[in-house]
Amino acid sequence: MASKTFVVLALAFFAFNLQATLGEITCEHLDQDTCAYAVASTGKRCVLEKHIKRSGEEEYTCRTSEIEADKIRNWIETDQCVKACGIDRNSFGISSDSLLESRFTKMLCSPQCYNGCPNIIDLYFNLAAGEGVFLPKLCEARQGNVRRGMSEIRSSGLVAPGPVGGVKFMGVAPAMPPY
């Protein structure tokens, strides 16, 4: 147990030092291999976009989104966290549907991801909250009866109904992630 804690702390220290040596992160300066799951120095999340040129060739660009990360700035996600959390660095967006996939939630809720990858947990915590799901409860259900936990989510046991009309931002801060 102590050795796992040491490894997590060593990885966090390495990631912090890596971020410090990179200086300020601007999404538009990141390449395809570092864009997804990165957070600019402004606190805005980076998003990978794919464009098709007239020639049919695919072109990838990194842009700054309007989504802000909670308490995380100047961050490029580590390969260790990408692997531990079961995410794809070449993703073009995320969906709450992934929270219903057993394999994905198993990796997201694993101690390596949940306790060692605060950026990814922050992102999925807020995504789940937007669907009315409290990520710690989802992970707790995941550890117990997987099918029951998933069925509770699908049956609105943990999910709030979607909006009927347009959604207005009322300036209410989302719940804080559990780290």
Describe this structure in words.
With 179 residues, this protein is of the alpha+beta class. It has one domain (2-154). 39% of the residues lie in helices and 11% in strands. It is built from seven helices and two strands, in the order H-E-E-H-H-H-H-H-H. Strands 1-2 form a two-stranded antiparallel ribbon. Helix 6 packs antiparallel against helix 7. The model is unreliable at 5-21 and 155-174 (pLDDT under 50).
Provide a short characterization of the protein structure.
The protein is α+β, with helices and mostly antiparallel strands and 179 residues long. Helices cover 39% and strands 11% of the residues.
Characteristic key phrases:
179 residues; alpha+beta; two-stranded antiparallel sheet; 2 strands; globular
| Main sheet characteristics | 2 strands, antiparallel
Gyration radius, rounded: 17 Å
Number of helices: 7
The chain-level structural class is alpha+beta
Q: In angstroms, what separates the terminal alpha carbons?
A: 19 Å
Number of strands: 2
Shape: globular
Widest sheet, order of strands: 1-2
Order of helices and strands: HEEHHHHHH
Which stretches of 5+ consecutive residues score pLDDT under 50?
A: 5-21, 155-174
Measured by DSSP, the beta-strand proportion falls in 5-15%
Supply the number of structural domains: 1
Helix percentage range:
25-40%
Mean pLDDT: 78
Protein name: PAR1 protein
Pfam families: PAR1 (PF06521)
Keywords: Signal
Organism: Hibiscus trionum
